[in-house]
Specification:
The protein is of the alpha/beta class and about 325 residues long. β2, α1 and β3 form a beta-alpha-beta unit. The longest helix is centred in the N-terminal third of the chain and has 20 residues.
Length: about 325
C-alpha cells in the first residue's frame, strides 16, 4: 500500500470484489432498480414481530444469499465489517451473530457500506486476510422511529426529506478473483457547515462529498473524465444539486457522469419520496445490484463511489447540535 497526498491510499495489489448481494423492501421493489436486486420483500415485517427484528433478518438473509452466490461459506471468511443505523448497530450484530466470523462493528451513518469496504480492502491488501465480508442494512420504519418521529404520529414530511431505504447489502472482498478491483480509497473528514435540519440530510452531507471528491482528485492527479461514473451514496435531488454546484465552484465539473443512489432508487413522479432515498442500504443495494452488474459486464470500467453519511442522532438533534457529514471514497476498476 502507498499513501498518496493527504488522505488517499493506493493499493498496489488491488483487492477483488468477488460478489455482492442485496435484498430490499416493498417500496424499493416498486422503483426503477427492482430488476437488479436479489430479492424484493412484500412487506416491511417479513414475518417478524418488530421492524428491528425484520432488519436483522434482512441482513442475515442477504449475507446467506451472498454465500450462496459466491460459493463460499462463513468458514472461509476471515473477518466481517458491518454496521447499520440503529443504536449500537444491533441489526448487524444480532443478524450476523450466528456466522461465527470475527466481527468489526462499523458506523459511518449512510456511508457505512463504503467505510466497511475501505477497511476490508486494507485488511486484504496488507495480507492480514484472504476473504472479507462487508455488510450493512437500514429500514425505513426503524430509522424514522429512532431519528425523527414514530410513524404512528403521522407527521408531515417536508419536500427536502428523504426516504430511508429498507434493505441490506453485502459484498465479499478477496485477495483472489478476477475483479472488479478496489484500487484506491480516500477516507473522508468530518465536515460541518452548520446545517441543523434533520429533514434536509442532502444539504448536510453534500459538503463532505465535495471535500472527499476534491481531495481524491488532488491526491491521485485524476480528473472527473477518468471515471465512467462518479457515484454519491444518498444525497437525493437537493443534495445532488448542491454538490454539483459546490464542486463547480471549486473548478471541478462532474455534471456529465455524476449519479446519486438516492435519486436512482425511487421514481420521483409516482413514489412520493420527496428528495429521494437515503439510509445505509441506499448506496449498498444500488451498488451491489445495479453498479456491480455494470462492472461485471464491462459496461462501466472505472467508477468512483463516494458514500455519504450524516453523523447525528436523536440526542444531538434534541440538544440543538448541527449535523456533521462524512464521505468515504472507493475507486473501483475493471
Amino acid at each position: 500500500m502507498k499513501r498518496l497526498g493527504n488522505q488517499t491510499i493506493k493499493l498496489d495489489t488491488p483487492v477483488s470484489i468477488l460478489n455482492t448481494a442485496c435484498i430490499v423492501g416493498p417500496k424499493e421493489s416498486e422503483g426503477p432498480m427492482a430488476q437488479y436486486f436479489d430479492k424484493c420483500l412484500e412487506d416491511e415485517f417479513w414475518g417478524e414481530e418488530t421492524w428491528e427484528k425484520a432488519e436483522s433478518k434482512i441482513i442475515k438473509e442477504t449475507v446467506n444469499t451472498l454465500f450462496s452466490k459466491s460459493g463460499l461459506s462463513s468458514k472461509q471468511i476471515d473477518y466481517c465489517f458491518a454496521g447499520d443505523l440503529l443504536n449500537q448497530c444491533i441489526s448487524s450484530s444480532f443478524g450476523l451473530r450466528e456466522t461465527n466470523i470475527p466481527f468489526f462493528g462499523v458506523f459511518g451513518a449512510c456511508s457505512t457500506f463504503a467505510e466497511s469496504m475501505c477497511l476490508g480492502s486494507l485488511f486484504a491488501a496488507s495480507g492480514a486476510a484472504t476473504n472479507i465480508l462487508c455488510a450493512t442494512s437500514s429500514h425505513f420504519c426503524s430509522a424514522e422511529k429512532q431519528f425523527r418521529f414514530p410513524l404512528e404520529l403521522g407527521n408531515q414530511r417536508p419536500p427536502s426529506s428523504q426516504w430511508t431505504v429498507t434493505g441490506a447489502a453485502a459484498s465479499i472482498l478477496s485477495c483472489n478473483g478476477q475483479g472488479p478491483f478496489i484500487t484506491h480509497i480516500t477516507p473522508g473528514k468530518i465536515v460541518d457547515l452548520g446545517i441543523t435540519d434533520a429533514n434536509n440530510m442532502g444539504a448536510a452531507m453534500a459538503p463532505a462529498f465535495v471535500d472527499t471528491l476534491i481531495t481524491h482528485f488532488q491526491d491521485t492527479g485524476r480528473t472527473p473524465d477518468y471515471y465512467d461514473a462518479i457515484i454519491s451514496g444518498d444525497l437525493g435531488y437537493i443534495g445532488k444539486d448542491i454538490a454539483t454546484d459546490l464542486a463547480k465552484n471549486k473548478g471541478v465539473n462532474i455534471q456529465k457522469n455524476y449519479y446519486d443512489c438516492g435519486v436512482l432508487m425511487f421514481d420521483k413522479e409516482t413514489q412520493d419520496t420527496h428528495s429521494g432515498g437515503s439510509g445505509c442500504a441506499c448506496f449498498g443495494s444500488i451498488f451491489s445490484g445495479y453498479f456491480f452488474k455494470q462492472l461485471q459486464e464491462s459496461k462501466l470500467k472505472k467508477i468512483l463511489c463516494i458514500a455519504t453519511g450524516a453523523l447525528m442522532n436523536a440526542t444531538s438533534s434534541q440538544q440543538g447540535e448541527s449535523i456533521p457529514g462524512i464521505a468515504h471514497a472507493l475507486s473501483i476498476e475493471k
